[in-house]
Design brief:
Blueprint lengths: L3 H17 L4 H8 L3 H10 L1 H27 L3 H11 L33
Helix pairs in contact: 1-2, 1-4, 3-4, 4-5
């Protein structure tokens, strides 16, 4: 069984490694020398560790968004379309309608094929 200090040290090193890898778990776990499953165990059992990891993930997302905005400012049409499709849904920038079932109702598609007509 691991000693608490060793685990606390590994958690601290893992947080540092996640910062360096922008939240990529596999990369960080290899740097620290732990299994990915250990990280997820800590996520499920240590609320402080989980909060620190979530903050790192938010920072990585902020970085990605700033890069996207940079591309939008350069008039990159792909970046503009992506932004409108994700953030502009409320203004009608969608390709399809999304329906969310919050009542647990399942839906299915019934395929209809015409029956052969006898005596053609």
């Amino acid at each position: 069984m691991r000693r608490p200090k060793a685990t606390a040290g590994n958690k601290k090193r893992m947080i540092q490694a996640l910062e360096k890898s922008l939240g990529i778990v596999t990369t960080a776990a290899k740097l620290v020398g732990i299994e990915r499953t250990t990280h997820y165990l800590w996520m499920n059992t240590d609320p402080v560790y989980k909060q620190q990891v979530e903050e790192i993930n938010d920072i990585a997302l902020d970085l990605s968004e700033s890069k996207l905005h940079s591309q939008i400012m350069k008039e990159n049409i792909v970046a503009i379309i992506f932004h409108l499709k994700t953030k502009g849904k409320g203004r009608g920038y969608v390709e399809r309608t999304e329906i969310k079932h919050e009542t647990g109702v399942e839906s299915s598609i019934i395929e209809w094929t015409p029956a052969k007509i006898e005596n053609e």
